UniProtKB/TrEMBL annotation:
<dbReference type="InterPro" id="IPR035899">
    <property type="entry name" value="DBL_dom_sf"/>
</dbReference>
<dbReference type="GO" id="GO:0005634">
    <property type="term" value="C:nucleus"/>
</dbReference>
<dbReference type="GO" id="GO:0005938">
    <property type="term" value="C:cell cortex"/>
</dbReference>
<dbReference type="InterPro" id="IPR026817">
    <property type="entry name" value="Ect2"/>
</dbReference>
<feature type="coiled-coil region">
    <location>
        <begin position="565"/>
        <end position="592"/>
    </location>
</feature>
<keyword id="KW-0175">Coiled coil</keyword>
<dbReference type="GO" id="GO:0035556">
    <property type="term" value="P:intracellular signal transduction"/>
</dbReference>
<dbReference type="GO" id="GO:0000281">
    <property type="term" value="P:mitotic cytokinesis"/>
</dbReference>
<feature type="domain" description="BRCT">
    <location>
        <begin position="122"/>
        <end position="195"/>
    </location>
</feature>
<feature type="compositionally biased region" description="Low complexity">
    <location>
        <begin position="364"/>
        <end position="377"/>
    </location>
</feature>
<dbReference type="InterPro" id="IPR001357">
    <property type="entry name" value="BRCT_dom"/>
</dbReference>
<dbReference type="Pfam" id="PF00621">
    <property type="entry name" value="RhoGEF"/>
</dbReference>
<dbReference type="GO" id="GO:0005096">
    <property type="term" value="F:GTPase activator activity"/>
</dbReference>
<dbReference type="InterPro" id="IPR000219">
    <property type="entry name" value="DH_dom"/>
</dbReference>
<feature type="region of interest" description="Disordered">
    <location>
        <begin position="331"/>
        <end position="393"/>
    </location>
</feature>
<dbReference type="InterPro" id="IPR001331">
    <property type="entry name" value="GDS_CDC24_CS"/>
</dbReference>
<feature type="domain" description="BRCT">
    <location>
        <begin position="210"/>
        <end position="298"/>
    </location>
</feature>
Length: 661
């Protein structure tokens, strides 16, 4: 058949090729110290490559044989033998490369350059800012010895930029693409580790030691900030590789301005000086690389928003008529957005007042129960599909129902701001500079906020529909009852771990400069209403008491014959049940936490102390007055549980137990 003839032809063709083109065998020559490397000899046997040992090239004779492809293994890439082999265009590799191939079960690679190890295999490097040719040649040579590839021009294929300066197009492009930007020391350190087979030069912990800091080559001054803010920013500047100078110093490269307090500069800046807004400073720290200054230039203007809009129009609309038309649209938009904030105007609360939880059943003093919270905020995230109609005659019941809807809409906007402005950017993959926080930290901070938002979005939509089709007989209580189980499911996980959420924010802000910068940038945005993330996150803790107050008020203005009167009472009771469950759950969680603190504190704590029914009632530090249990004057800690009393002597690490009858 035809297929058989084709197969026979292929077999005959390969047979002829094998006869006419004899196979060339690979031969490895171990030079001097390489021949004494026992692990290397074992690796060559594993990959079945023949080898010979030699101390001098003269012993080998002519290595250029048609029967063998000779590969020289040299331990020192700086001695005279290595230089002579390179001049003769011989293939030279290092012992680590042989060990790497044996470990991977791969053949020895072909390379036209000497290849010592594979620690930079598959890496594509580009250089910028190097003025000394000798230094650059040395770095390029080391990269080639470690298997790396060099590109003169920067492109998306470049995996790492090695920078000696934060200026230039290559640096800017690398920042925009999120390409790691490293110092030359990274290459030198990698070469020092060339004999470590398992050394990964792309490992984050190793690579981060050599990152080019955001403010390298920068001399910063700060204008318009408070003393505390300025001290903080100066400390951050030095942490991020820069230096700070007094305002007006001619050596300064950047003047960072607080645009909300500074309207004009106290001096005429030099042309080489970048005058930037503080967002440039925090943005550079957040993405762990110096941000482009052109986006953050400070300019004196009576209407900064308008000037920016005009500038953008001049860049994007060459036609003057289109410019004027878009300018009118921009002016109209600016007019509409004058009070686009989900937060009623108020003074910034102190941290102690705004962040104390207390009991959820205490509904007598919540921020949303004040009269100012009755103002309807303009939605910054999810605008209502319809506006609430105004009946000709507004009843007291309608007024309070309207306040309930407005505060619910306001609350949904706040939750949306928390998620869109903070949680989503933190969870986003491919962040410039890598993840700002670990996923566990993000989960601890935000908890069940998305679930709470989902429930309250539905409540808001039902309230909106009720207000759009208002009649006095419409049931408000049914809406709350409809979602009471969802509230019971979503609120306890958040409220119980709210303190842990605050602690995580505080700890990460202190330990992680990029997170601190992230908060600085986003908390300054108008959507936050000049409140911190921790202050925003307390809103879910306050919302249910606020709703209970408003429902009580609606019930007062509901006629006895109205069926919603009874429904409202049931709704209020359901909210109290949710809040009671939350408080009880929170007490249990706190008690368990205290219990485990005791277990971790007491050395050799018996396992039988842990019990599901046991809880810590009180802890008391005492001093022994007698000699019965321990020496007089010794420190003794008493732990009173619900079913027993434990005493612990710190010096003797003895835990004694008395059961309570």
């Amino acid at each position: 058949c035809f297929d058989c003839k084709v197969m026979n032809c292929r077999i005959l063709f390969h047979h002829i090729l094998e006869k006419e083109m004899p196979q060339i065998e690979t031969r490895v020559v171990l030079v001097q110290e390489a021949g004494k490397h026992e692990e290397l000899l074992k690796a060559l046997e594993e990959i079945k490559v023949p080898y010979i040992k030699t101390d001098t090239l003269e012993e080998l004779g002519d290595s250029d044989s048609p029967e063998f492809e000779t590969i020289f293994v040299v331990s020192d890439f700086q001695d005279s033998i290595f230089s002579n082999l390179c001049k003769a265009d011989c293939r030279v590799i290092g012992p680590p490369l042989v060990l790497h191939c044996a470990q991977k079960g791969e053949p020895l690679p072909f390379s036209c350059r000497p290849l010592y190890c594979a620690s930079m295999l598959n890496l594509v490097l580009c250089f910028t800012g190097f003025r000394k040719k000798d230094e650059l040649v040395k770095l390029v040579t080391l990269v080639h010895h470690m298997g790396g590839i060099i590109r003169r021009d920067f492109s998306s294929k470049v995996t790492h930029l090695v920078a000696n300066s934060t200026h230039g197009d290559k640096f800017r492009i690398a920042v925009s693409l999120g390409t790691p930007i490293l110092k030359a020391e990274w290459i030198y350190k990698a070469w020092e580790k060339r004999n470590e087979i398992f050394c990964l030069n792309t490992d984050d912990d190793f690579r981060n030691q050599f990152k080019v800091p955001p403010f390298q080559d920068c001399m910063l001054s700060f204008l318009g900030f408070s003393d505390d803010e300025k001290a903080n920013m100066e400390e951050m500047t030095e942490m991020q590789g820069g230096h700070y100078l007094p305002v007006g110093d001619e050596r300064c490269t950047h003047l960072v301005v607080e645009e909300s307090t500074v309207k004009d500069l106290p001096f005429e800046p030099l042309k080489k000086l970048y005058v930037v807004k503080q967002e440039w400073f925090w943005g550079s720290i957040q993405m762990d690389a110096r941000a482009g200054e052109s986006m953050y230039l400070f300019e004196k203007s009576e209407s900064p928003g308008l000037k920016k809009s005009v500038s953008l129009l001049s860049l994007s609309t060459p036609n003057s008529n289109r410019k004027r038309r878009r300018l009118k649209e921009t002016l109209a938009q600016l007019t509409r957005e004058t009070d686009m904030s989900p937060f009623p105007p108020r003074k910034r609360p102190s941290a102690e007042h705004s962040l104390s939880i207390g009991s959820l059943l205490d509904i007598s003093n919540t921020p949303e129960s004040s009269t100012t919270s009755g103002e309807t905020p303009k939605s910054c995230a999810r605008p209502s599909k319809n506006s609430t109609p105004l009946p000709l005659k507004q009843s007291a019941r309608w007024q309070v129902a309207k306040e309930l809807y407005q505060t619910e809409s306001n609350y949904v906007d706040i939750l949306t701001t928390i998620i869109q402005l903070f949680q989503v950017p933190l969870e986003k993959e491919g962040q410039l500079g890598g993840p700002i926080l670990a996923q566990e930290e993000i989960k601890t901070i935000f908890g069940s906020i998305p679930d709470i938002l989902d429930v309250h979005t539905k409540i808001k939509e039902d309230l909106e529909d009720l207000m759009m089709n208002w009649t006095e007989s419409k049931s408000i209580g049914d809406i709350i009852l409809k979602y009471s189980k969802d509230l019971l499911k979503t609120y306890p996980p958040f409220v119980n771990f709210f303190e842990m959420s605050k602690e995580t924010i505080t700890r990460c802000e202190k330990q992680k400069p990029r997170f601190h910068a992230f908060l600085k940038i986003n908390q300054a945005k108008p959507e936050c209403g000049r409140q911190s993330l921790a202050e925003l996150l307390i809103r879910p803790v306050q919302r249910l008491p606020s709703v209970a107050l408003l429902l009580n008020d609606i019930k007062k203005h509901t006629a006895e014959e109205n069926p919603d009167k009874v429904t409202l009472e049931r709704a209020i009771e359901s909210l109290k049940e949710v809040m009671t469950h939350i408080n009880e759950d929170k007490r249990k969680t706190e008690a368990q936490r205290q219990f485990f603190d005791v277990v971790y504190e007491v050395d050799g704590c018996p396992a039988n102390l842990l019990s599901s029914h046991r809880s810590l009632v009180q802890r008391l530090e005492t001093v022994a007055l007698g000699d019965d249990l321990c020496d007089r004057g010794e420190q003794v800690t008493l732990f009173l549980f619900n079913d027993c009393l434990e005493s612990w002597e710190a010096d003797s690490s003895v835990l004694m137990c008395w059961l309570i009858q």
